[in-house]
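Homework help board

Subject: predicted structure for assignment chain

Our instructor gave us this sequence and asked us to write out the predicted structure in token form, then describe one feature. I got the tokens but I'm not sure how to describe them. Can anyone check?
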Amino acid sequence: MFYLIIINLFCNLVDLCYLCTFIIRKMISVEGLSVEFSAKPLFVNACFVVNDRDRIALVGKNGAGKSTLLKILCGKQQPTNGVVSIPNDTTIGYLPQVMNLQDDTTVREEAQKAFASTRELKERIDRMNQQLADRTDYESDDYLALVERFTQEHERYIMMGAENYEAEIERTLIGLGFVRTDFDRPTSEFSGGWRMRIELAKILLQKPDVLLLDEPTNHLDIESIQWLEQFLAQSAKAVVLVSHDRAFINHVSNRTLEISCGRIIDYKVKYDEYVVLRKERREQQQRAYENQQKEIADMRQFIERFRYQATKAVQVQQKIKQLEKIVPIEVDEVDNAAMHLKFPPCLRSGDYPVICEDVRKRYGEHTVFSNVNLTIKRGEKVAFVGKNGEGKSTLVKCIMGEIPFDGNLKVGHNIQIGYFAQNQAQLLDESLTVFQTIDHVAKGDIRLRINDILGAFMFGGEASDKKVKVLSGGERSRLAMIRLLLEPVNLLILDEPTNHLDMPSKDVLKEAIKAFDGTAIIVSHDREFLDGLVTKVYEFGGGKVKEHLGGIYDFLQSRQITELSQLQSAPSISSIPSISSSPSIPSSPSSPKSQNYAERKEQQKKLRKAERAVEESERKISDMERRLKELDTLLMDPVNASDMKLVTEYTTIKKSLDEEVERWEKLSEELEQLT
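My token output:
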């Protein structure tokens, strides 16, 4: 009897497991998928399934076909062969690396487009409700049918949680870095990176069954990346993503699809575990391959030795048949073509390339930072870290001499600065090809390796013949980075250099900086990139700059955090002894001590927005003043004195300058009120 009970329980358990396999919902099924470009296959006969709750990291070297596969899954591109099956009730949300963005709406209006069907349903319910109030034929069949339709639609509306969609919009936009005062601003006022955040918000708000995300973190800061990680882990149904941020994909993924050697290999583990399994898999394949090759060699040796001996004829024939039946073992190819790149030799700089003594920067009454005292020695590699808006890029601009400041900031003798920021990509000559852009700055033997260098940074093959004007923002950023790597400088200043770089390209850049003879200042939130690269960390926060000796993980340990993203919730730097020797400023009655966390965070966001507005206004004023000086010079020439085009331009700019100065004064007053 006991054994029968055990058997029944076992059978029930088997049945339960069998049923569970069918309960898991299949979102996308891929069978026999093949893609060819110019007769060269990206991958062939790919078969896999995307299930509910899958968090898939799509990995592979540059050009392997990751972005192409995402386009096929969302129906924007057709495969050469194979079938992609998606149930009719399954919705897909796709975020490409580059997309056309709208300019005729506000941020809120653009985000509300995610709820277009919900708003239509609400309007339909309101119309039916008005009809019910206006009509008096309460006993008619038509009126009763209207009541039933209204009830059904209203229940559906409530079940969708549609009443809260405005709150969802606010939560999502704030999570991605916007502040409430941004909501009613036109999208045209934002940079391409911020507008991509709007598109990401729209996709997340639609709550699709499958999210296809191609490099979603390229335009996000530390806080937004952390928010997106939590959203994908807790709220998303199924995710397939491509990202070059190792930490991000490892935190999000529970499954890894690798495109390698024309095949798609499915690993049912997150990214870090996949790396280990891939290495073990190849080692096993290599051992099996070597054993098979030894077996084949032994058979061939036996055949050659006894081929003409009558007494061994039967054994020889058996060996020949065995040899013909052997299926060769394939070993996964690994791209071992390590690209090593070094900066060209540079002039020896002074012993101290950068010295700051009581440096302070303020806009109106708002102080970005004060009492900054730091010394960067020749050959040091240092990191600037901290939350957005705390002054990292501002201090870089002070070092570059782009903006005025208070205090003493000395740039050492014989300093040649190489500066990389996102706007560097906008300064490229659009009439040149990718190859020509690099050929113009390459010197000596490095010119013989231009194609190898371009390949390491995702410009291999035909991509090197593209015109700069057709490149995406990410491609331009990578091209600007290559140019910087080839210029003879002895002080590198890199502002978020790893955006748009894949993992191998990051490794190339990291190796080049480590071997660089000069000094480097790196503004980055990529702790994997900074690990082993920097020997000193400067933390920006609360108007102070604090020096931490050691690498990035020494800094994280000293702050008792594991991620740079946790700086948001870590104790304020103002509560830690600053590198400045000046006493701390006492808190005013309205200081953050009397505010809760949410109020402080909101206040900081308003402050950062106001700072950005003032900086943007100052930049516009500077540009217009510079152009007016140029026009003055031109109009002083008798040849141009009667040129009405120049006169009209001068008058228009002068009027715009007066208006912008008034706007700057207003913005400065608003900033002063916030501080």
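Reply (TA_rk): Your tokens look well-formed. For the description, you could write something like this. The first helix runs from residue 2 to 23. That's the kind of observation they're looking for.
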